[in-house]
Amino acid sequence: MSYRLRLPGREPVEVPSWGNLAIELVAERAGVKPAVQAWIDESDRPVIARLARELDLATLEHARNGERIGVMLGKRPGDLELAAGEWAKPDSNPGVALGYPDCCSTAYKLWHHSNQHDASYPDIVFTVAEKTTGLRGLPAALNDLFYFFSRNRSPDAEPRRRRLEQLNAGLDLNGLNLIGWHPCSYRCKNSLAVAAKIRAALETLLPELAAVQRLCLSRPVLFWDWDRFAALKGAWRGEDFFYEKVAPPFGALDAKTSDILRRGDRIKASEKTVEVLKGDESLAVYGRGALFLDFQ
Ligand SMILES: [Zn+2]
Q: How far apart are CA 150 and CA 134, in angstroms?
């Protein structure tokens, strides 16, 4: 699969769907990203060279991880050297050099540092939600629930990831994020300001992806973990959310939870619990391990 960036007055530029590279390049065009980082194989070098040529970007190969080569793309070679220098530091925090807000980059670093050897550590979404005032009416632009990079530490991540892809055939999960970082809070003003610029560029350069994002990111989500979640189609009535169905993207839920959600039609969420109901009948109450995040 690939994307075609529509640049004014030029032929479309074909971008492979390697991770969220297309969105990162949109952010670069939006002027908010001095350096775009990608891991590539040797055989991918011609593609990077073509992208650099067609998008007027410089490149810098700066790291190796086994067979994989770390490469950066950006307008100014000096910015690439700066980002590569940050990347190479032992306790590296290259977020700001990659265009992420300082507050979010620092918050991510704290989370990452404290969990880097522990696969059972809570998903970063819980840390971000804790820092967020109220979980109703969250901006869809900061929805990072389907942004799996730099966050998933379980040893069985690969098969779980493949299962998610099977459940969402035809939908590029890597395209379901507007920001290429995790915000420090779901109401972070710095992230919102940058996200607005990326959104405006996405509407022009990749309108099809912008439309898919509008559908998939603007929904309340019952969330347990990076691959266990349910996005719900419905509407708020008073204090409760009434839903018609579970909507894409689909999480990899166990049969019991799937059945409860299929039977239910209403969510009652408080600070501590999320309850699924069918009319007035309670079907399940989830405690600390679940969140109901109302992205709109
Ligand atoms: Zn922030």
A: 25
Percent of the chain with pLDDT over 70: 99
Centre of ligand 1 from the C-alpha of residue 47, in Å: 33
Least confident segment among 63-72, 83-92, 235-244, 276-285? 83-92
- What type of residue sits at position 140? A
Q: How many A from CA of 98 to the centre of ligand 1?
A: 14
* Domains of the chain, residue spans: 2-33+99-294
CA distance 251 to 229: 5
**pLDDT band, residue 198 (cuts 50/70/90):** very high
Q: Which amino acid does the sequence have at 144?
A: D
Tell me: pLDDT of 150 over 80.
Answer: no
Give me the mean pLDDT over the 263-270 stretch.
96
The residue among 261, 269, 186 whose CA lies nearest residue 230 is: 261
| CB-proximal residues (5 Å) to ion ligand 1 | 101, 103-104, 184, 188, 190
Q: How far is the CA of 92 from the centre of ligand 1 (A)?
A: 18
H/E element, 294: strand 291-294
Cα–Cα dist 110/98, whole Å: 17
Interior angle at CA 155, CA 150 and CA 158, nearest 5: 70
Give the max Cα distance, the chain. Answer: 62
| CB distance 53 to 8 below 8 Å | no
Select from 97, 208, 192 the least CA-distant residue to 144. Answer: 192
Long-range contacts for 7-14 (Cβ within 8 Å, ≥24 apart)?
7/55, 7/205, 8/204, 10/54, 13/51, 13/54, 13/55
Name the token pair of 286. Answer: 């989830």
Q: Quote the tokens at residue 81.
A: 């050297």
